[in-house]
Amino acid sequence: MAQYDEVYEKVSEMLCDAKDLEPDALTPDSPLHQLKLDSLDYVELMVLAKKEFGVSVEAELFVNNPQISLRELCQYLSDNSK
């Protein structure tokens, strides 16, 4: 099981790279929709989750939870990692 801090660090790094953000621009309570992610960004998140943490994330997670925060996503990945 991946630790929350490890998950948060990797997901934050991916988002900062994708959106050309500084790491301090993100907080755990940042809603993903405020980052103006496009469909490719969400696909990258799903690939990262599978590759790094062994978690299959379906697009429905984001569709059904449009207000999901970075903390909630990272907690989900941490709780479901192998």
Task: List its salient traits.
4 helices, Acyl carrier protein, single chain, 0% strand, 82 residues, ACP-like_sf, mainly alpha, globular, PP-bd_ACP
Large-scale geometry: globular
One letter per element, helices H and strands E, the order comes to HHHH
Quaternary structure type: single chain
What is the average per-residue confidence, as pLDDT, rounded to a whole number?
94
Structural class: mainly alpha
User: Approximately what portion of the residues adopt beta-strand conformation?
Assistant: under 5%
Low-confidence stretches: none
- Portion of residues in helices? 55-70%
Helix count, per DSSP?
4
> Sheet with the most strands?
none
Strands, count: 0
| N-end to C-end Cα span | 5 Å
Q: Determine Rg (CA atoms, Å).
A: 11 Å
What can you tell me about this protein's structure?
- By secondary structure, the protein is mainly alpha-helical.
- It contains four helices and no strands.
- Helix 1 (4-19) packs antiparallel against helix 2 (39-53) and helix 1 packs across helix 4 (70-80).
- The mean pLDDT is 94.
- Residues 5-81 form the Carrier domain.
Brief summary of the model shown:
This protein has 82 residues and is an all-alpha fold. It is built from four helices and no strands.
